[in-house]
Fold:
Amino acid sequence: MAVIEFHHVEKIYTGQTRAIQDFSLTINESEFMVLVGPSGCGKSTLMRMLAGLEQCSAGEIILDGQVVNDWTPQQRNVAMVFQNYALYPHMTVRGNLEFPLRMRKLSRREIDSRVGEAEELLGLTGLLERKPKQLSGGQRQRVAMGRALVRDPSVFLMDEPLSNLDARLRVQIRTEIGALQRRMQKTTLYVTHDQVEAMTLGDRVCVLNEGILQQVASPMELYQKPANIFVASFLGSPGMNLFSASCLDVGSDTSTFRLGLQSIKLHGQASYQENLAPAQSYVIGIRPEDLSLKGTDEDDRIHLRLIVESVESLGHEHLVYGNLLGYEASKISSEIENTLKPVTKTGRLTVRLPAHAQVSIGSEITLTARPEQVHLFALNGLRIGKHSDHHSVSMS
Ligand code: ADP
Structure:
């Protein structure tokens, strides 16, 4: 059992810019924390610093109240599972599982008991006398986890453990890892660039970009209340549609925005109003799944007109791509263009519609969304309105 704390941790590799900047995070006892972010954002660096394989340039790493910066990896008692599971090919599964225990000179009884436990927990029964090459990819991955588990570590670190597996196996092992962690109740830090793994596995998810923590929250909160444009565009597939918009009017209960030649009214968002100013530019975000074809009697919704450019039929749904009518007439401020890359310049958007929806290429359709499904961001990238997270930072 362990609580992990990062206090203002920094990492500067020799001759490099900062790989990790002022990173602070507490991972609670038994928590499954997922660290997610694009390639090169510093995930492995953080994990290696926690494991003791890399020194911090500044800040403290604290395990159960003790600063461990100067501790060796062995003293920290954290177990790592990597993507290349590095089993000893000449040893049987049993040999692989016993190896770390024999190194620690545990008694025969203790070794048998721990291997038996791992065998049961990981469903390795019947496989103990096989060599790694006689196992499937998934079974090998389980043995690798077993080898980490038998050491009875206080912390589990997993660095992209599924990335070498094919798609079907990845789903299966992902589910197994989730169930295993819940049974073991071990504090776990799991690193991935895969947003589906992050959303399905994490009790909480920590989003990292360019060495800077963006947001820490439950998967649902990240999805519903992304703290900034980076998080909004990183999580969700297809990604959130993001447009520049200018604020026309701020009323006591309603504010009006213009997207090109179209305007939308957002109301009932009391927390927005105090942060808005007329004539300022903002970024409006709407997820593809929050848009639907206009029916009747939907006056309380926002409406957007779109020219359909292409349609992909996925069987259970259509992905409709199109362009907002009149959006190209909007003047995108150079600030948006330079710093907020995910924001569309052309008014292109993606919509997920049910398979029975009738849309034809080249036609004009009207889409609606509930005002509360519209995300609003300031030009510094930060969400406008309430969100409970204090870890959010601006995009740089
Ligand atoms: P991720 O795991 O998210 O892909 P890394 O932690 O591996 O990211 O890398 C973060 C940044 O630090 C990258 O810019 C990478 O090039 C740099 N980096 C990683 N390891 C080293 C190293 N040993 N020496 C110098 N730079 C490194």
Summary: Residues 387-396 have pLDDT under 50 and may be disordered. The two ends are 37 Å apart (CA to CA). The chain is about 25% helix and 30% strand.
